């Protein structure tokens, strides 16, 4: 493999430095580096981050290849600056056996655009009734460490307790989709002033918060770690903050859309804003940003949820829940966290690369940008301004809430173990 | 005048008064030996009903026929819709057949708004009830009834409902009638009080332009009109209230309670009534109850809406309207 010299990039937003990649690893970081015959990338003004790691991606394959495949999803990931994604288990068939997780893992290896780490279902068929063969999924080639029934809540307290305990044997973690099912029957949007006016079934904050409260207490009781998917309310932040102050081993994620959008957008009845958990209020958005800044929330995860056009081009109640996010996540984080002064780029690297890799126990990702480390890198031009155009997405689906919205920043290059997957914003 | 009627909240005071005044003109037509106007001759209106509602559908149909429109009734049950055809495809199919207006009843809140704003079709859209969102022609016919009874048939022309005290009782949470009425009555200057058990009020109701009370008895003496909303018996199975009898005791309108209302005050009900639940038979059948009158007024009001939305800027019938409503 040839050498690549990235010249003058602000490493983690700091001083401009040169980074030399040799083969799959970073050979040197410093100033005035030169290398005979190396491909040179002039990166003045750009920010160099460790390759982003998504702990929450729906790649839809197997089963819903009409909305996304492992190949199209990983292309979208590369364009968004991700070098690893965790593929959620709610496929058809559900990723609840070693066979299915190995299939997804193999498809990821074949795609080559980013690493795909399958997540295994906690219960068979995501039905909450019978524990899936978590050990078999862990022992498979896919080496599953994260388990989740995402899309559905492990609402049975005993089932949740057992899962939390069981995965300790192989350092696994349960990622909970916190949604009390009875409180959210018929729920269509955040319950509050807007739902009252629109006549859409309310999705109360307490449906999320009550499950998180229960699960942090369960984790404490059995001495397990627990990860909370897509935190969306100010109350959830308070509970996680309290749990961490007690020393409970809890981690939490927030999606880019919950850092930016509010339920006011639902007034359009445009299902592009329909998502689970629902968009909340301005107060929640501000609390989530603050929690991400102070470390109460550990990571940003996309919850990239592709859906075909017809599943959104309809009345609200009939529409599918979810938004694509891989190709806009970093821009949203730049706007909501960096440009507001809440986080610097080193903080972004921690929350979008280092911490998610740690939670997922994913080797080779989320590493420092220094000599000897794997060359998983993302180069961002933070000065870029442009309106989001879904027609340019690599994802097979277009269900973005940001169409036409101006967002800052653009991923110019992504490197996966030294190989450029994106050059000048284009897939290789 | 607007192109669509989606929500009562979209109507300005002047829009609403114009509709009510036009409805009075339409009412005069109903007194003639031949109850028909040529206003919509050659125009086609489809009644697109995804939910069963015989009363509302018949009311619209009568209004459309009295305006000489060609009427197509489309009930989604048993049609291609029940086989998975989307709202978009259904609407585009109908428009391709030359429909000028779509009167839509749909179980999903916001479906008429989507139909009017998504670029799927060009026809005018009239909301005939969507989910638990809005039912604007119901609010208009209720306001029409109130204005007639509380202000006067002729004296009311050009006027709103300023200062009138309206109490709405029952299932506010699942009720599109209550939402529409709060919006329109507020626009028309009335003072609205909602009365319901706390379980049947939406979270967020505190921001609505109205008062909220859990106590019917203390509200009745301060009411010019009391509107009783239907409460479905099945609600008690989801623990919204313990039993039918307890609901009736606390929130039902019987003869004793009606006696607490001022003498001039009326009892309203959008129908269908659940006698013995929210209203007793003697109240329902009393002179003070306007339920039947509301049905008649529904046809006049829907005629006015169709006429105004489908391009009738001239007076519908040959007599001048009061100056201020022009």
From TrEMBL, chain A:
> What pathway or pathways are given for this protein in its record?
Pyrimidine metabolism; UMP biosynthesis via de novo pathway; (S)-dihydroorotate from bicarbonate: step 3/3
Q: State how the cofactor is bound.
A: Binds 2 Zn(2+) ions per subunit.
Q: Which UniProt keywords apply?
A: Hydrolase, Metal-binding, Pyrimidine biosynthesis, Zinc
A molecular function (GO) term: dihydroorotase activity
| Catalytic activity of the protein | (S)-dihydroorotate + H2O = N-carbamoyl-L-aspartate + H(+)
What is a single cellular component term in the Gene Ontology annotation?
cytoplasm
What this protein needs as a cofactor is:
Zn(2+)
Q: Which EC main class describes this enzyme?
A: hydrolase
List positions binding substrate.
58-60, 90, 276, 307
| Location of the active site | 303
Q: Which residues bind Zn(2+) 2?
A: 150, 177, 230
Residues of the Dihydroorotase catalytic domain: 45-233
Entry binding sites for Zn(2+) 1: 56, 58, 150, 303
List the InterPro entries hit by this protein, alphabetically: DHOase, DHOase/Allantoinase_Hydrolase, DHOase_cat, Dihydroorotase_CS, Metal-dep_hydrolase_composite, Metal_Hydrolase
EC number from the UniProt entry: 3.5.2.3
Among SUPFAM superfamilies, the record links this protein to: Composite domain of metallo-dependent hydrolases (SSF51338), Metallo-dependent hydrolases (SSF51556)
Task: Name the PANTHER family for this protein.
Answer: ALLANTOINASE
Query: What's this chain's function?
Result: Catalyzes the reversible cyclization of carbamoyl aspartate to dihydroorotate.
What family does the Swiss-Prot or TrEMBL record give for this protein?
A: Belongs to the metallo-dependent hydrolases superfamily. DHOase family. Class I DHOase subfamily.
**Protein name from the UniProt record:** Dihydroorotase
Q: List the taxonomic lineage.
A: Bacteria, Bacillati, Actinomycetota, Actinomycetes, Kitasatosporales
From TrEMBL, chain B:
Among Gene3D superfamilies, the record links this protein to:
Aspartate/ornithine carbamoyltransferase
**Primary enzyme class:** transferase
One GO biological process this protein is involved in is: amino acid metabolic process
Show the catalytic activity: carbamoyl phosphate + L-aspartate = N-carbamoyl-L-aspartate + phosphate + H(+)
Aspartate/ornithine carbamoyltransferase carbamoyl-P binding domain location: 3-147
Record function comment = Catalyzes the condensation of carbamoyl phosphate and aspartate to form carbamoyl aspartate and inorganic phosphate, the committed step in the de novo pyrimidine nucleotide biosynthesis pathway.
Subunit architecture: Heterododecamer (2C3:3R2) of six catalytic PyrB chains organized as two trimers (C3), and six regulatory PyrI chains organized as three dimers (R2).
- Protein name, as recorded: Aspartate carbamoyltransferase
Organism for this UniProt entry: Streptomyces boluensis
